Amino acid sequence: MIKVLLADKFSEDIFKLRELDGFTIDEKVGMTPEELKEIIADYDVILIRSATKLPAEVLKLAKKLKLAGRGGIGVDNIDIKTATELGIKVMNTPLANAESTAEHAIAMMFAAARKIALGTSSLKNKEWIKKQLKGKQLGGQTLGLIGMGNIGKIVAQKCYGMGMDIVVYDPYLKKDENNQFEIKSNGRVVDFKVNVVTLEKLLKTADFISIHTPLTNETRNLLDYDKLSLIKDSSVLVNNSRGGVVNEDDLYKVLKENKISVAFDVFASEPLGESNLLELDNFTCTPHISASTVEAQKQVAIDLYNQLKAYFIDGEMINILNK
């Protein structure tokens, strides 16, 4: 019998696992870390999203655990090193919510560039501040992407189609003035070109900057005060990747200088509590909802179902990060 624990909320499609011989599912959403520690020893599989954390002290109590599945691409909430040492496989779904996350990044670009949140709040306060809401267009501008993984490629493809020039900083890409990419989007194959540059050059030249990198020791506080200060006046910075990539205290200092506009969907500490960033008109934010679409939630569950079936029944390892 394979006992599966759903520690976070998933689409109903995940419950198709009950139709397979030998699978049972318990759904226990919203547990505290202590509550999770008390029951994790009973399960062979745990499936999580971004809310639940699996640090070493939790994994060491998971005596039967064979697999930890993360709905989504980021796995910084799982201690993969400890999981590997304990023989626990870690699985993610890197493509399931990529389209929705990319679309939200672009939505945040528009929101910050056209000051949509400030326009909405002013009208609701019976104010007509049209002259204060002059924005900037995306077409004809330069987009700088920090990270060119699955999501970054989709953002690049869509923004290239809007007439933006694309520059990329990604240490895994060769610096070349003519990088050709091909991506399949909604059943269509799209070709586009990007220029790969240094991080410093990207920050100095891009009109829009969108971050698409995991949170690692190398990327934590990647953008500190010195790096943020390189960004051109009136540029827009978007972070839909992971909180902690941008130092939020340093960001506040830069925003107080009113140099740039920023739109964040992720934060170093979530849920976001008190933050001086919330005082600023040039800071737009959403509560980590990039992947919160009907389509993405459904695809995450379908992908996890198919991957678990492949692993336990067919002996295939799909999107296993520590083989």
Percent helix: 25-40%
Oligomer: single chain
Q: Count of DSSP helices?
A: 10
The fold-level CATH name of the largest domain is: Rossmann fold
Q: Tell me the number of structural domains.
A: 2
The total strand number stands at 13
CATH class value of the largest domain: Alpha Beta
What sort of overall outline do the alpha carbons produce when their principal axes are compared? globular
Ranges with pLDDT <50 over ≥5 residues? none
- The whole-angstrom Rg is 21 Å
Q: Strand order within the widest sheet?
A: 8-9-7-6-10-11-12-13
**Proper CATH architecture of the largest domain:** 3-Layer(aba) Sandwich
As a percent range, the share of strand residues is: 15-25%
Instruction: Report the average pLDDT across residues.
Output: 93
How is the main sheet built?
Answer: 8 strands, mixed
SSE pattern = EEHEHEHEHHEHEEEHEHEHEEH
Structural class: alpha/beta
CATH superfamily of the largest domain: NAD(P)-binding Rossmann-like Domain
N-to-C terminal Cα separation, in Å? Answer: 23 Å
Please, could you describe this protein's structure?
The protein has 323 residues and is of the alpha/beta class. The protein folds into 2 domains: 2-96 and 293-312, NAD(P)-binding Rossmann-like Domain (Rossmann fold), CATH 3.40.50.720; 98-285, 3-Layer(aba) Sandwich (Rossmann fold), CATH 3.40.50.720. The chain is built from 10 helices and 13 strands.
